[in-house]
């Protein structure tokens, strides 16, 4: 590689690397669905009206999150924090709010308001919404990389 | 956020600029992945990573997993700022 690197060549080289990254950054197949299903199970867990069921699912949720993170790192050889400040962040923050808010709402609905079955309804809404947000995140990140350095 | 254009001679070297271009949009990238993208030898990549690390632009971490050492690199906040400023300077020069 030449040391004589004009600014135009330099910008072209930067964009070429960003384009290559854009081709590879999307989550592995099934990643978003597994993440959303895991959150869905957590949101649905108060349905069984048992502290221990919720506690076990809660711990399992974080173990599966760790597993998903490891899967992404191993398959892609990199990690991208979805919450880093960038345009795609709005999708990850919304997904996080749906997961966390859904779980809190489910606990309140089942255990405080005694609306039996509300947690299942919340989970059924959360899973496809979170899956869709995951794909939107991938698309927004790819667009960000391709737009300009 | 406004970036003040500033030329960085450490970043401007062709391979180092491309390393920064790959590291800036990610949290961390493994050595092997970087090497795959850049198509250079281990020794060449190591040398340039060390230069960037010495300048405080990147951080290199080694983690052992299944008795394998995995080396990864990430940009420091200062390195990210310097890279953004350098790219802004290139664009200013080119006039885009």
Task: Summarize the structure in words.
The complex is a heterodimer of chains A (149) and B (96). The longest helix of chain A is centred in the last third of the chain and has 30 residues. Chain A has five helices and one strand. By secondary structure, chain A is an all-alpha fold. Helices cover 75% and strands 1% of the residues of chain A. The radius of gyration of chain A is 20 Å and the shape is elongated. Chain A has one domain. Chain B is α+β, with helices and mostly antiparallel strands and 96 residues long. Chain B contains five helices and three strands, in the order ααβααββα. In chain B, strands 1-3-2 form a three-stranded antiparallel β-sheet. In chain B, strand 2 and strand 3 form a beta hairpin. Chain B is elongated. The chains are: A mainly alpha (149), B alpha+beta (96). Chains A and B meet through helix 1, strand 1 and helix 5 of A and helix 2, strand 1, helix 3 and helix 5 of B.
Q: Spell out the CATH superfamily of chain B.
A: Winged helix-like DNA-binding domain superfamily/Winged helix DNA-binding domain
Estimated share of beta-strand residues of chain B = 15-25%
Q: What's the pLDDT, averaged over the residues of chain A?
A: 93
> What is the rounded Rg of chain A?
20 Å
Quote the beta fraction of chain A: under 5%
Number of strands of chain A: 1
Structural class of chain A: mainly alpha
Count all strands of chain B and give the number: 3
């Amino acid at each position: 590689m030449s040391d004589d690197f004009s600014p135009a060549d330099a910008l072209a080289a930067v964009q070429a690397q960003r384009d290559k990254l854009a081709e590879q950054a999307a989550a592995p197949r099934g990643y978003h669905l597994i993440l959303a299903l895991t959150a869905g199970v957590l949101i649905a867990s108060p349905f069984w009206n048992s502290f221990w069921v919720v506690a076990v699912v809660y711990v399992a949720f974080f173990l599966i999150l760790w597993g998903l993170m490891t899967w992404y790192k191993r398959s892609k050889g990199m990690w991208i924090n979805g919450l880093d400040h960038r345009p795609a962040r709005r999708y990850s923050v919304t997904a996080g709010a749906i997961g966390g808010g859904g779980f809190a709402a489910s606990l309140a609905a089942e255990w405080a308001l005694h609306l039996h079955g509300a947690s299942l309804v919340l989970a059924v809404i959360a899973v496809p919404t979170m899956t869709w947000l995951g794909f939107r995140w991938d698309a927004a990140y790819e667009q960000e990389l391709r737009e300009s350095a | 956020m406004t970036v003040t254009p500033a030329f960085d001679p450490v970043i401007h070297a062709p391979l180092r600029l491309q390393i920064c271009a790959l590291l800036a949009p990610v949290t961390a990238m493994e050595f092997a992945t970087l090497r795959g993208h850049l198509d250079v030898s281990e020794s060449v990549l190591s040398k340039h990573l060390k230069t960037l690390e010495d300048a405080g632009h990147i951080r290199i971490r080694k983690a052992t997993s299944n008795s394998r050492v995995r080396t990864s690199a990430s940009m420091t906040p200062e390195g990210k700022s310097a890279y953004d400023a350098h790219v802004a300077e290139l664009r200013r020069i080119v006039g885009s």
